[in-house]
Structures are given as structure tokens and as C-alpha cells.
Amino acid sequence: MSSEAQHAEERVVDTATGAEAPAEISEERVQHIFSNIAKQYARFNAVSSFGLFKGWLRKTVDAANLTPESDLLDLAGGTGDVSYMAASRRPPAHIQLTDFVPEMLDVAREREAAGAACGVPIDFEVVDAQEIPYADNSYDAVTMAYGIRNIPDRMKALREVHRVLKPGGTFACLEFSTPPNAVWRFLYHIYLKVMIPFWGQVFTHDRPSFVYLADSIRAFPDQEHYAQMLRDAGFSDVSWKNYAGGIVAVHTGHK
Ligand SMILES: C[S@@+](CC[C@H](N)C(=O)[O-])C[C@H]1O[C@@H](n2cnc3c(N)ncnc32)[C@H](O)[C@@H]1O
């Protein structure tokens, strides 16, 4: 990656376009979108990914190197998909489930009340991943699924993740990415442009928000660029695995 491209990643961006812009534009849009779709989020995910999203969550949880002693911080945790997958698959000692949008955490709390945490102690807090209110070196693992793409100052968030991880800790990050195969990428971009806004209209009658989701996926750095951002934030042994031909990737980095 050129130093110019590296510098470009330091910018605060409009997450819909990747162009430099004040953070408030993206932050206000995220509040609007996710407070509106919180209740329909699970159905939208299941349908728009053809049910594949659960497998990707499993891969993310497996990548986080959880043990029964781990303290897990789930950032941009939304309605709890990663946290509850971790609780059922590789139960840690404690989960801190956080998100920027209170309405998403309200749904997560309802799921916990229905038993989704499988007995794992869990705390909820509204947290901006760009300013994590926890001490240095406090978590064994940090997870983030589909969060970093929605954050305008991504380097600030990644440095914060690195700061709160304990030495030896793991960051596992699931995000939409760039299929390396040109034909698959072309078909996928058509799906993003046409079908994601369609599902959005069906589920929430809020087509513009889903046009945003599709735009933000296209504007997000590809696998190698994002890996470089993780290295620049201080992570070592950065690697990634593609799933569904690179439609999503799970990046991991260690402190
Ligand atoms: C697509 S949802 C993913 C939720 C969850 N991780 C999952 O896999 O279902 C993206 C989430 O990122 C959250 N988010 C956006 N910007 C954030 C920020 N600056 N700090 C923390 N969370 C943020 C949104 O509120 C939303 O809940």
C-alpha cells in the first residue's frame, strides 16, 4: 500500500462514499438507520444473506480465541448476534455488549431476557467505538461485526480497540469485503445495488437507509487495505479469511 493510500485511511470519512467529511454526517445517519431498523434487523439479516450470516458469526467467534476465562468486549454489538453466538458456542467468563445506538441494545436486552446469553454474565452499555470508556489492557478479546464500516474515524476506533485489549489479546472483525474474482464481484455489486434496497423496502419501508448500506459496503477498503489499517493501529499477526468468495472477511489481529 502506498503512503498516500495509507494517509487516505487516516481521514474521517463519510461512510457512504469514503470521501473526507465531518464525522457528524455518518454518526447521525447511523443513529437514524439503526434506531429505525432495530426490531426488523434479525429478519433482514437472515433473508438478505440467505441464512449464511450465522455461519459467518460462528467463524468470527472461533477467530476470537475465547476461553472460559475470557472477558469479551463486543463493539458495535447491536442486537447481540456475536455475543450470543459466543455465549452458546465458546462461553467466556463475561461479555460486555456495547453499541452506539440504544435501540439496538434494547433488542439485545430482550434477547438476553429470553435466555440468549446461556447463563454467561453480560453487561450492556452505549459506547462509541471511537472513544471506548474502558481502561487500557482490560479485555482478552474484542469482536466487531459489520461495525467498522459504519464508523467515520476508523483508525481512531482501531487504536481504541488495541488500547483496551490485554497483551496477547485478539481482535476478530467481521465485515463485508471485496470478492477477488471479477465476475463474482460484478454479480455481488448488482445484488447490492438492486436487492439490498428492495429487502429494505420490504422490511422497513425505508429504502434510502438500505441504499446507504449498499453504498457503504462498496466504499469500504478491500481486505489488504483494511489489514494495513489494523497494522497501522498497532496490531500484529494480522490476517484474514474470506467467506462466500470474499463477500465477507474475518480479519484478526493481536496485541
Ligand atoms: C450492521 S449493525 C451490526 C450489529 C451486530 N454487530 C451484528 O452483527 O448483528 C452495525 C452496528 O454498528 C453500530 N455502530 C455504528 N457506529 C458505531 C460507533 N461509532 N460505535 C459503536 N457502534 C456503532 C450501529 O449502531 C449498529 O448497531
What is the topology?
Elements: H1 3-9, H2 23-37, H3 41-48, H4 53-63, E1 71-75, H5 81-89, E2 94-99, H6 102-113, E3 122-126, E4 139-145, H7 154-164, E5 165-176, H8 182-204, H9 207-219, H10 223-232, E6 236-243, E7 248-254
Parallel strand pairs: 1-2, 1-4, 2-3, 4-5
Antiparallel strand pairs: 5-7, 6-7
The chain binds S-adenosylmethionine (SAM).
Pathway: Quinol/quinone metabolism; menaquinone biosynthesis; menaquinol from 1,4-dihydroxy-2-naphthoate: step 2/2
Enzyme class: transferase
InterPro entries: SAM-dependent_MTases_sf, UbiE/COQ5_MeTrFase, UbiE/COQ5_MeTrFase_CS
> Helical percent range?
40-55%
Highest-level CATH class: Alpha Beta
Query: Which fold does the CATH topology refer to?
Result: Rossmann fold
Q: Identify low-pLDDT runs.
A: 1-8
Number of domains: 1
Catalytic activity: a 2-demethylmenaquinol + S-adenosyl-L-methionine = a menaquinol + S-adenosyl-L-homocysteine + H(+)
EC number: 2.1.1.163
Biased composition (Basic and acidic residues): 1-13
Binding site for S-adenosyl-L-methionine: 79, 99, 128-129
Describe this structure in words.
The chain has 255 residues and is α/β, with parallel strands linked by helices. It has a single domain (3-254), classed as Vaccinia Virus protein VP39 (Rossmann fold, 3-Layer(aba) Sandwich), CATH 3.40.50.150. The protein contains 10 helices and 7 strands. The protein has helices at 3-9, 23-37, 41-48, 53-63, 81-89, 102-113, 154-164, 182-204, 207-219, 223-232; strands at 71-75, 94-99, 122-126, 139-145, 165-176, 236-243, 248-254. Strands 3-2-1-4-5-7-6 form a 7-stranded mixed sheet, with helices on both faces. Helix 3 (41-48) packs antiparallel against helix 8, helix 4 (53-63) packs across helix 5 (81-89) and helix 8 packs antiparallel against helix 9. It is globular and about 45 Å long. It starts with a helix and ends with a strand. The model is unreliable at 1-8 (pLDDT under 50). Bound molecules: S-adenosylmethionine (SAM). S-adenosylmethionine binds next to helix 2 and helix 5.
